[in-house]
Amino acid sequence: MKQTAAFFSSRRSRRLSTLGLALLLAAQASACRQDMHDAPKYEPLEQSSFFKDKRTSRPLVAGTIARGKLKEDKLLHTGRDGDALSESFPFPVTEGVLARGRERYNIYCTPCHARTGEGNGMIVQRGYKQPPSFHEERLRAMPAGYFFHVMTNGYVTMPSYSLQVGAEDRWAIAAYVKALQLSRHANVADLSADEKIRLEKGETEPAAGSGPGHEPGHAKEAHGG
Ligand code: HEC
Description:
Elements: H1 2-37, H2 74-78, E1 80-81, E2 84-85, H3 95-108, H4 110-113, H5 122-125, H6 137-140, H7 144-153, H8 167-182, H9 193-200
Helix pairs in contact: 3-8, 7-8
Heme C binds at residues 108-109, 111-113, 123, 128-129, 131-132, 147, 150-151, 155-158, 161, 165, 173, 177.
């Protein structure tokens, strides 16, 4: 009986000393972890003792261009072909491009220029300066690149839209504005034989029927055609 008690007590004290060792190790380990929390690296905006200006965030080397931001295509990004504003587009103007242009135009330009391009949009009706109509002779004569240029750089009181509208979309809008202008001066002689027959029969294209100015306003229209 005595022996058993001695056996138990020695087991217990061994257990206690194991626990003590474990605690000691844990304490040491946590001292190490303190170092890891403050690793020898700079944190954003931390002061530097290495650089003269004490800034750890270094300025970009002059001429640095972010990945994917190299504006190699001059026509696409400036609207210019050589020095002159371009008559042509940097990519083919398909029906899809025109649909995209109409959608973007309706979002970004109609508040002032109105869906018809006459320049009496809702903001203008509430007192904003009235832009000229896109249908006036001077603007009808302007090349596509001019519209791109105005959207990119702004024009007198009109702000630039280059932050809200990407370069491709600005060209798509320019194409749509050109189409708006053409819509008032379309010539029957320009139609194909097929289209002339349809016109005589009074048929419209299946997905059309939404001329500028009276659109149904469905989100679906962006896929039109
Ligand atoms: C907040 C109102 C507003 C919005 C939105 C706006 N414009 Fe304008 N725009 C104007 C005003 C005002 C003028 C006339 C500027 C002046 O002469 O002071 C103008 C002028 C123009 C001109 C004619 C420049 C000239 O030679 O007379 C073009 C082209 C044009 N805008 C295109 C666009 C396109 C495309 C969009 C859509 C991306 C757009 N604008 C969005 C207000 C706006």
